[in-house]
Amino acid sequence: MPTADALRLAQEADLDLVEVAPTARPPVCKLMDYGKFKYENAQKAREARRNQTNVIIKEMKLRPKIDAHDYETKKGHVVRFLKAGDKVKITIMFRGREQHRPELGFRLLQRLAEDVTDLGFVESAPKQDGRNMIMVLGPHKKKAEAKAEVKAAKSAAAAEKAASDAEEKAERTAANATRSTEAKPRGRSENLDPEIDA
Q1: pLDDT value, residue 173
Q2: Which H or E run contains 88?
Q3: Is the same domain home to 62 and 44?
Q4: Considering the domain boundaries, does residue 23 fall inside one?
């Protein structure tokens, strides 16, 4: 179709003539509302940006001679990070003579990896890096899935709290209603001023 006829058709339909495939022979054009097309593409791009998740690497630092309670606390943090869908970089810092016993750090990292094996996996094996030994744990589930689970848990907790609040309010109103019907009549002896007749 000649270009002049295509432009005339576009003006009659109050649309734009947009070149879709300029490299094709002959070039392919389409009648469309170009402003609307650009707007819809921008909306799709914005939605894609909003849904994309960037994985954050959290870091946990340990010492080879860590106490049992401190280890449990640090492990709890690692579990929380993995549940949130983040990667965790675990660093064991060696000082002084500890540098000559890297197997202590290696055993500690292996123990931690075994403790959190249901939530994550070893992404990079323990390796010595100067004074430090480093291992990276990756989560089994993606960040978006973890976010969805947290959101569902929050909404369930909110619904449960609203139900318990409504039940408590109903109990209070029922108790207040029985209290008001049980109001005892005041007798003459309860009047403290003898001058006033009831």
Answers
A1: 86
A2: strand 87-93
A3: no
A4: yes
